[in-house]
Amino acid sequence: MQHYTRRMVTIVTEAALERALVTELEALGVKGFTITDARGKGSRGTRQSDWVQEGNIRVEVICDPALADRIAGHVRDKFYANYAMILFLQDVSVLRSDKF
User: Fold this and answer.
1) What are the residue boundaries of the structural domains of the chain, listed by start?
2) Which region holds residue 40: left if phi is over 0, alpha if psi is between -120 and 50, else beta?
3) Number of DSSP helices (H) and strands (E) in the chain, helices first
4) What is the pLDDT of residues 20-52, one digit of tens each?
């Protein structure tokens, strides 16, 4: 088994953005991602997941640092001004039996 250091991009945003966000990520070259429902409270109030259009999603992408930086800049420039969203980056160690 090999450990590979990568960066994880986590985006928590409005569920209504899911399709647009996936399209943007794929255009940037993202090969895989995970999307889950999310709930919580932040500067823009409490977000429930009872109704799809009112809920939040959490999008996670594990990639190389250069792609992570491109994702962060693009998402910030395209969506931050008009949508409830937070994005954070963290280094992660990925354990794989094959080359990653």
Assistant:
1) 2-93
2) left
3) 2, 6
4) 999 999 999 999 999 999 987 766 555 554 555
